[in-house]
Amino acid sequence: MNSSNNPGMYRPPSLNTLRALVAAARHRSFTRAAEELGVTHGAISHRVREVEERLGEPMFERQGNSMQPTLAALRILPTVRQSLELIASVFPEPPAAGHVVLKVAVLPSFASHWLVPRLAEFHESHPGIAIALDPRMDLSPVGPQGLDAAIRYGSGEWPGLVVERLMQDTVFPACSPAYRERMGIESEQDLGRCRFLRNSWQPWTPWFQRAGLALPEPADSQPYDDAGLLLEATAAGHGVALVRKVIAQDAIAAGRLVRLSAVEHPFEGAYHFVRHPGSPPARTAAVLAFAVWLKHRLDGEFTGAKLQHP
User: Fold this and answer.
1) Nearby residues of 97 by Cβ (< 8 Å), 6 or more positions away
2) What CATH number is given for 3-69 in this structure?
3) What are the C-alpha distances in Å from 118 to residues 11, 60, 121, 175, 261?
4) Rounded distance, CA 243 to CA 235, Å?
5) Per-residue model confidence as pLDDT tens digits over 206-250
6) What residues in the chain have per-residue pLDDT under 50?
7) Which of 58, 88, 146, 242 has its CA 20 to 30 A from that of 195?
8) Among 247, 287, 254, which Cα is nearest to 271's?
């Protein structure tokens, strides 16, 4: 009997299948995904095909030497990534004696596009501290009975918590190399004939004004609530977007995105490190070690204010 015809027997894709999908999307390569997960190229292809058969849509399309996620894949990848990270936070590896496991809430886009690729550096320099990431958009309970800390973007006004400003992000226009070539984009003046993508929280008009362009707000373009999803749609060649520097720099360095202007506009608010003042001394020391590493790592790539210590 086909379980898809019997809701009582339905089973979602396995964790290994979802991990294969995420790894393939991250590397844009089935071969590199297979190397990361310690399986064969055929195993990755089989698991991706399983997802495609379940959803009835292709997940990847070949562009040159890379496998680019389709729009269907981009719609589900943020949820799949967050689900895997949440499961990992609920069932972490048992810590060794003397280790401290910190639960840190973090914005999904910041986690997947900046923090996770660099987190191994913190673990190497602080082997006694493990970081369990809790990706979510809201400011979850931070305190002795909840999360140890959170990385949030906003005004910094969270009463009752210790809030340290990390840095303010900026936005600038970017697109995929293929889209730039197809549209013949050589300067800001060429953007008027492009398809604009937009973040629901970041209008284009302030950047247009800063760049001296008399273009109307592209209100009829497709909005994206998640900055990471917007970045992925842009890298897939769907148009030009105002991308945030922090989460876009790796994609630019890898050649998945190209920056179209030197003009930047501040993104409203700033990144902050948020913690509770009443944590036990051992946990407070571990939290501060992570905060200092985080600030120094950001300072190594961007300009920001110095982290304050209590």
Assistant:
1) none
2) 1.10.10.10
3) 34, 26, 6, 24, 27
4) 11
5) 999 999 999 999 877 778 888 888 999 999 999 999 999 999 999
6) 1-4, 7, 95-97, 304-310
7) 58
8) 247
